[in-house]
Hints:
Elements: H1 2-9, E1 13-20, E2 26-30, E3 35-36, E4 42-47, H2 50-57, E5 60-67, E6 74-86, H3 89-94, E7 108-120
Antiparallel strand pairs: 1-2, 1-5, 3-4, 4-7, 5-6, 6-7
Amino acid sequence: MNDLQDYFRDRKGFGTLSTADAGGRVNAAVYATPHFMEDGAVAFIMQERLTHRNLLDNPYAVYLFKEEGEGHRGRRVYLRKVREEKDTELLHSLRRRKRDGDGERKSLYLVFFEVENVLPLVGTGE
């Protein structure tokens, strides 16, 4: 886990979190880099949208991260949801961006995952 946390510490790039519902219909959404918890879990903050709804039926996801710059450098992080929290103090302490000032307060979820595998962006890593 520390290797993954070290990897993301100074990297800039573009990430997507891919999920599937119980019927296998897939979704991909843009997400910032994960938060690394003391217990070894990684976490993402999410709204009650398709990604979150998919994770209620199917706990598996893949976070794909493409590093800035030329070439195909990055990581594919295979995840399994282990728990979530709704609108907690921890969630709000981890937020990197503040809410838009649209006046409508929507619930947020802090979703925790176990990392099952990490592969390079391209290839098998062997």
